[in-house]
Amino acid sequence: MLDKIIKVIIPAFNEQNSIAKVVADIPRNWVTEIVVVNNNSQDSTAAVAREAGVTVLDEPRQGYGYACLRGIAHVTHQVEQPDIIVFLDADYADYPDELPEVVRPILTGHAELVIGSRALGQRETGSMTPQQRFGNWLATRLMAFFYKVEFTDLGPFRAVAFDALQRIDMQDKTYGWTVEMQLKAAKLGIRTTEVPVRYRRRRTGVSKVSGTLKGTVLAGYKILWTIFRYR
User: Fold this and answer.
1) Does residue 135 fall inside a structural domain?
2) N or C: which end of the chain has fewer CB within 10 A?
3) Average pLDDT, rounded, for the chain
4) CA 98, CA 23: separation in Å to the nearest integer?
5) Residue 211 has what pLDDT?
6) DSSP string of 111-179?
7) Residue range 191-226, pLDDT digits in tens
8) Range of the domain at 129
9) CA atoms of 175 and 11, how far apart (whole Å)
């Protein structure tokens, strides 16, 4: 049994066909609570998550950042606050069973923020679109230039020490969430590292970002705007 309190936050928008698989693959002996934030889903995401036996919160304001902030508020106001927060997507493209590898650098004192890097890990063919790969490359190169920090990915599967997360003081409500966390950590001198993670193609639905032209354009704009804003 770990002596650290680890909680998982999963933002979920219309993921009724995958959320149960994500929850089932999380190593339960490693986590204290799994929080699924239902982000204005029009399907049965919330009901399926409740059946899986996890905490389900509702966040009607559309946006990845809104959902993550709702989850953070929930764990922050609990009597027993977490030591580590893990963020994980609800689409089952990540491998939740790799959670121990993602949190281990924090447990051993080597890092305060760990990014699960798809660029360093094994990617299933077709799991990332060309625009995703280019966007990751461009964003990480710009962060290296402006903030002197080396990342290979803006991957959603990540772990952060709770006290570091409080110092970062996340604000973004939509597409700039991941890059805001990483560049603010660099500015604050928070110790960061990456670990390779596997990544697979979506089996159901389409990506809310890379699966549509609108999502791709808006996400790209917001990520670049965020990088220059905090410079």
Assistant:
1) yes
2) N
3) 92
4) 13
5) 46
6) -SEEEEETTTS-B-TTSS-HHHHHHHHHHHHHHHHHH----S---S-EEEEHHHHHHH-----STTHHH
7) 999 999 999 987 665 545 544 556 567 777 788 878
8) 6-229
9) 13
Enumerate the β-bridge partners of residue 113.
160, 192
The rounded distance, in Å, linking the Cα atoms of 64 and 131 is 19
**Placement of tokens 């990014």 in the chain:** 115
Do 191 and 111 form a contact (C-beta atoms < 8 A)?
yes
Q: For the domain that residue 197 is a member of, what is the CATH number? A: 3.90.550.10
Looking at the 3D structure of the chain, how many domains does it have?
1
Q: At what angle do helices 213-229 and 130-147 cross, to 10 degrees?
A: 0
Question: Does some domain include residue 154?
Answer: yes
pLDDT in tens, 43-69: 999 999 999 999 999 999 999 999 999
Spatial strand order in the sheet of 192-196: 55-58, 33-38, 6-12, 84-87, 158-161, 113-117, 192-196
Whether residue 1 is contained in a domain is answered as no
Contacts for 18 with CB less than 8 Å, ≥ 6 apart: 90, 91, 92, 202, 203, 204, 205
pLDDT tens string 169-197: 999 999 899 999 999 999 999 999 999 99
Inside any domain, residue 131: yes
First to last CA, the chain: 42
Report the alpha-carbon angle 183-164-32, nearest 5.
Answer: 125
